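Memo to structure team: turn this sequence into structure tokens by end of day. - J.P.
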Amino acid sequence: MRDKIIRINWNKACLLDEAIASELSNTQGLYYISRVFGNKETSLYLGIATKNNTIRHRLIGHRDSWLRRYRGKIYIRIGHVIYPIKPDSSIIDHAESAILYEQSAVFYKNTSKTKSYSYKDLYRIENEGDIFELKPIIRMHDQE
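Reply from structure team:
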């Protein structure tokens, strides 16, 4: 059985306030939060914005709550699903779920989808661009 493909292009990391101000964040999609403290970058969180929400709105919420506790610089990579061409919220959710399940040790601030998740279709997630610690390819079929 062939996997269905979800391809995500991750924009270059930028500072949190720059990401919030960017037009790129005024959309639905995925976002990847990391921090640089000293000379070390660490992945913190992977999130999504779907339906009546935007990445900008989600980032403002994170900034005003738990991200304030971190020293160093907070960076954001915005991920846009470029295939399928018109992704719906279930595609974005599938991508987040597969990444979090596969890379749970990297995204320790995430509390859901790291031990299990539900799905009805098998996808191959292809990450491209500024992926930092993301695996370039994640096959949901391999997770069964």
